[in-house]
Each structure stands twice: as C-alpha cells, then as structure tokens.
C-alpha cells in the first residue's frame, strides 16, 4: 500500500467513537460508559453482548441517561446460515429486535454482516443469495425504524463462519440496488487487503455510513480477537482514511479492536492509549 501523499488534519477527540468491543466482552456496560466519559469520549458503539443482566432496556437507559451518541449497534448476522423456514423466521425476528434496540438508543446504523455458512452447507453462492434476500426483506422495517443498515464485508478468513458478503464492491452494489436505508461500512482491518479498495471507496461517495479502524498484526494469532492497536501493524490507516474522507465522509471514526491482549488492561490504561494512537497513527 502506497504512502499517503497529502497531509491529513489531526483527528480530534470528538471524532472518536469507541466501539465497546475494544474494551472487552466481560466488563459491566455502565463501567465502560463511565470510563469513556471520564476520558472525554462522548460517542460509543455497543454490541448486543454488552447488555449484561439488565438486558436491552437497561443498556438503552444507561446510554441515554448519560447523553451519549451512538454510531452503530452490532450486529445482524443470522441470514447466511438460515437454510430452513424456522431459522429464516428467527433471523427476521432477531433483525427486527436489533433495529428496535438501535432506534431506542439513538444509533444511526446497525452493522449488517449477514452471517456465514450453515453447519451442513458448502455453497457460498447460496449463502450470499440468502444474505441479499434477507437484507431486502428486513429493509422496509429498517426504514420505518429510521435506522440505516451498514453493510460490512468481513475479511476472507471470516467468510465461512461470520460474514459472507465478501468485498466492499458487493456491499456497494447491494446498497446502490436497494437504495434508501442501506450504506457501506469501511473497516481497515477487514478490507485493507482488497486490491480494488481505493477505487471502490472513491465510488462510494454518499454511501459510506461508517468507518472503523484497527491494525493487522503479523503474524495474526487468532481469527477474531487478535486485532492490533493502530500503529502496531502493517495497515496504512492514514491512506485509507484519506480515501474515505475524499468522499465527503465527516462522521465519527470508530476504533474497533477485538483483542484478548488489550482488553486485559484497566480501562484507565487502555482508553488513553487508544486516544493517543487514534490521534497519532490514524
């Protein structure tokens, strides 16, 4: 990946959205929210797994009581493996629940990764077709909820079990085809490898509804939870940021670092480090 030829403006703290997966999966939600506020972060992106014992309503109340902004709620991922009528209905019901929760907490988008292959399936074409059909079927509900479906292609190593959309071009084609209520999510970790990334991003003007950053470590030790802190890996994050910003994107940038190593730090160690790297390595 070539070096960014143009200087970028330094990122400000109010441009950072803390994807709460960066702080781990086991901490109480309110503890994470309070730590973000303590360090000046006012925008977050929760996962449903962060709800804890209080459930969705408790999480929604905790976020709203603190006046926090929400970029996205993660995630919608059951359509790919839904190869029976019962599983399809479950995917639709779950999708509607996620959209209702996102709307209630004020999230602009729901991250849509689609899902992977069913346990007994081997046809990536069938899976991608189901994801596309599920997207089309859930879209009217998303529009009525006022929440945009952010289509996120995952890294190829995640296609089989988590998200089979495949590439940013596929996501963009679907967003253009389906129109209002859809957009694409650019993620440096998942998409840095794509030879067409610059061209596709530049074709995505007006369609980018989220931008996530983390780094790729060599070697990678875990297929899900070994993302690198920005600046520790091989991704030219400022270059990708320049492409995204050239489309007019001005919304917050999410830090999404799935990492068992980093999440072991205390919040008052981890969050200042994330802020430092956000401002120095992105």
Automatic annotation (TrEMBL):
Protein name: Xylose isomerase-like TIM barrel domain-containing protein
Span of domain Xylose isomerase-like TIM barrel: 34-261
Pfam families named in the record: AP_endonuc_2 (PF01261)
Source species: Pseudomonas fluorescens
InterPro entries in the cross-refs: IolE/XylAMocC-like (IPR050312), Xyl_isomerase-like_sf (IPR036237), Xyl_isomerase-like_TIM-brl (IPR013022)
């Amino acid at each position: 990946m070539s070096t960014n030829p143009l200087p970028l403006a330094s990122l400000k703290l109010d441009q950072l959205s803390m994807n709460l997966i960066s702080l781990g999966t086991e901490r109480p939600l309110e503890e994470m929210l309070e730590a973000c506020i303590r360090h000046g972060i006012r925008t977050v992106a929760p996962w449903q797994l962060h709800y804890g014992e209080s459930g969705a309503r408790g999480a929604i109340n905790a976020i709203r009581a603190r006046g926090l902004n929400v970029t996205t709620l993660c995630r919608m991922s059951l359509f790919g493996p839904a190869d029976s009528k019962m599983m399809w209905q479950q995917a639709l019901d779950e999708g509607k629940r996620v959209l209702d929760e996102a709307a209630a907490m004020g999230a602009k988008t729901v991250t849509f990764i689609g899902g992977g292959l069913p346990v007994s399936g081997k046809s990536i074409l069938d899976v991608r077709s189901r994801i596309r059909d599920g997207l089309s079927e859930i879209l009217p509900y998303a529009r009525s909820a006022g929440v945009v479906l952010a289509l996120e292609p995952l890294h190829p190593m995640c296609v089989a079990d988590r998200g089979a959309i495949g590439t940013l071009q596929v996501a963009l084609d679907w967003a253009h085809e389906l129109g209002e209520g859809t957009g694409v999510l650019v993620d440096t970790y998942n998409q840095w490898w794509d030879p067409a990334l610059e061209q596709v991003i530049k074709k995505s003007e007006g369609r980018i509804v989220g931008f996530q950053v983390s780094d790729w470590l060599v070697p990678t030790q875990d297929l899900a939870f070994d993302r690198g802190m920005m600046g520790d890996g091989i991704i030219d994050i400022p270059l990708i940021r320049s492409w995204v910003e050239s489309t007019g994107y001005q919304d917050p940038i999410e830090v999404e670092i799935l990492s068992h190593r980093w999440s072991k730090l205390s919040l008052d160690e981890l969050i200042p480090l994330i802020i430092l790297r956000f401002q120095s390595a992105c």
